[in-house]
Design goal:
8-stranded antiparallel β-sheet; two-stranded antiparallel sheet; globular; 5 helices; Pnp Oxidase, Chain A; alpha+beta; about 15% helix; homodimer; about 190 residues
Amino acid sequence: MSKSVKKSDLPVHLARRYLEPGPIVLISSAWQGETNIMTLGWHTILEFAPSLIGCMISAGNHSFELVRRSGECVINLPTTRLTDSVVGIGNTSGNEIDKFAHFGLTPETSARVAAPRIGECHAHFECRLYDDAMVERYNFFIFEIVKAQAPTRPKHPETLHYTGEGVFMVAGKVISRRRLFKPEMLV
Amino acid sequence: MSKSVKKSDLPVHLARRYLEPGPIVLISSAWQGETNIMTLGWHTILEFAPSLIGCMISAGNHSFELVRRSGECVINLPTTRLTDSVVGIGNTSGNEIDKFAHFGLTPETSARVAAPRIGECHAHFECRLYDDAMVERYNFFIFEIVKAQAPTRPKHPETLHYTGEGVFMVAGKVISRRRLFKPEMLV
């Protein structure tokens, strides 16, 4: 995905199209002039309206404090074009390197949050902290997605899904069973 | 996946191998002689030890009360062999039908919980309610996986990943980047 590809606004509840299948995402954050990026595989959609997503961001990550203090982040969706960068980002620390510079990624200005989005990613979901009640005990942040952007095509990008042990499943074919759904279930 | 395939015990923290990639799962539950099955796509791993998983089970589901009252469930992993049953289960209610009977699925006795597992599924994760602090507000159950079982092969089954609108992404190829990981990151 070239960063020059035009991305369009998406209704925020349609974040589920990209995030519910369970891809590895890149969380970008900023606080007091510092930015960072981390990989995240532990997330789940929680609600459509407001558009809520829960993310387990371990306190051991340098990003934890940036997200906690700013109350914001961007969830960026990488595809297989970024596989080695995704692995590199997950195996280095923002304590030691500037991840945007080190991995040649472009910090782009976000629309609704101060955290920069990652230009090379397929889609972006700008988030504000909605509920921190589970942060203390589980490092579990509940964010509201306040802005969603993705290109019109491909609708189903080749995302990475982590299985542990250094191994990823890559998003495969797409099948529709739309005819078997009740109309009210077709959100 | 024939139900006659032998499944072996798996260390509970390795549930992440199957669940972190984000598949649709089937939740089976039981309470006072009644059983039910529901589809679930909104889940995330939360911790390795104890092996915790968070699941958003909407209160509108018939399974909600069975899970809430029993404090137990089984997370079963279906593959593409069960696609139409998965869709059928998600588009019917346990208020109206016996889902095991209606979809020809086999309730098997679980090892650690009263809820039956679904014989035709690839893997089974028996769960006990660990923390209900987020159930009232978000229908978000935090379970501890107390028993995990899966066949030795295939290690990466053809799972279903829901994107909304009646469309699924099917698990595709598997790629390793193990050589790029720090040893301590290879959980």
